[in-house]
């Protein structure tokens, strides 16, 4: 036990030991509800690092834990070799790099099955409202002005900007069809909707 404790608190494993303490502290905060596993996802692109599919906290924790284990094992073996101290220190530097490289490959292999536990669900988008019916909430709708209320799939409602340019009558309380979204103007193009013409009816 003393042999492993010595290896964990000396170079090169001590570098990974410090990082592992931070990881353990983070997951303790997650357990008590003071932190969220997705809190770093907006700042780091794990797909670009070939670790995508799982939250950053998960892939980083695996990387650090595996690096610590590989470095600890290698340090114990180096200590038992009986080689000169200078050579052991040199090989320790090589070991730290090798531990990172090895854990990187192992983490990539492990996150692939784990990614199934973290489905990538895109957030709601205004484009999801295209094709929906809405209720006009202003006295008129023209090329420069208009608002309507539309219901989302989850049952919530939103007031959106709407425009039309064909002069069709759309007054307060009438039903319209959102048929396109203008990203530049941040509004929907709307047309009068007649329920009798709805093929789904």
Write up what this structure looks like.
By secondary structure, the chain is α+β, with helices and mostly antiparallel strands. It is built from four helices and five strands, in the order H-H-H-H-E-E-E-E-E. It has helices at 2-8, 13-31, 56-81, 85-114; strands at 133-136, 147-151, 157-163, 175-182, 187-192. It has a five-stranded mixed β-barrel. A hairpin with a 4-residue loop joins strand 4 and strand 5. Helix 1 packs across helix 3. The longest helix is centred in the middle third of the chain and has 30 residues, at 85-114. Mean pLDDT is 83; it is low at 42-46.
Q: What is the terminal separation in angstroms? A: 75 Å
**Rg (CA only):** 29 Å
Main beta sheet: strand number and arrangement? 5 strands, mixed, barrel
Oligomer: single chain
The total beta strand count reads 5
Count of helices?
A: 4
What level of helicity do the residues show? Answer: 40-55%
Task: Give unreliable regions as ranges.
Answer: 42-46
The arrangement of helices and strands along the chain is HHHHEEEEE
Strand order of the largest sheet: 1-2-3-5-4
Average pLDDT, all residues: 83
Which overall shape is indicated by the principal axes computed on the Cα atoms? rod-shaped
Helix/strand/pairing category: alpha+beta
Strand content: 5-15%
């Amino acid at each position: 036990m003393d042999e492993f404790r010595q290896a964990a608190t000396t170079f090169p494993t001590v570098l990974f030991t410090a990082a592992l303490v931070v990881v353990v502290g983070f997951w303790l905060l997650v357990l008590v509800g003071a932190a969220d596993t997705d809190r770093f996802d907006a700042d780091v692109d794990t797909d670009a690092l070939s670790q995508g599919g799982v939250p950053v906290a998960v892939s980083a924790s695996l990387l650090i834990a595996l690096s610590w284990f590989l470095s600890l094992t290698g340090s114990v073996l180096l200590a038992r070799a009986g080689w000169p101290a200078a050579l052991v220190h040199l090989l320790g530097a090589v070991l730290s790099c090798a531990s990172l490289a090895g854990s990187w490959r192992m983490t990539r292999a492990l996150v692939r099955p784990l990614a199934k536990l973290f489905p990538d669900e895109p957030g709601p988008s205004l484009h999801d409202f295209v094709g929906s019916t809405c209720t006009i909430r202003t006295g008129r709708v023209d090329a420069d002005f208009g608002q309507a209320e539309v219901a989302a799939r989850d049952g919530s409602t939103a007031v959106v900007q709407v425009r039309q340019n064909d002069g069709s009558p759309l007054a307060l309380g009438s039903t319209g069809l959102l048929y396109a979204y203008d990203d530049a103007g941040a509004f929907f193009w709307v047309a009068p909707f007649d329920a009798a013409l709805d093929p789904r009816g």
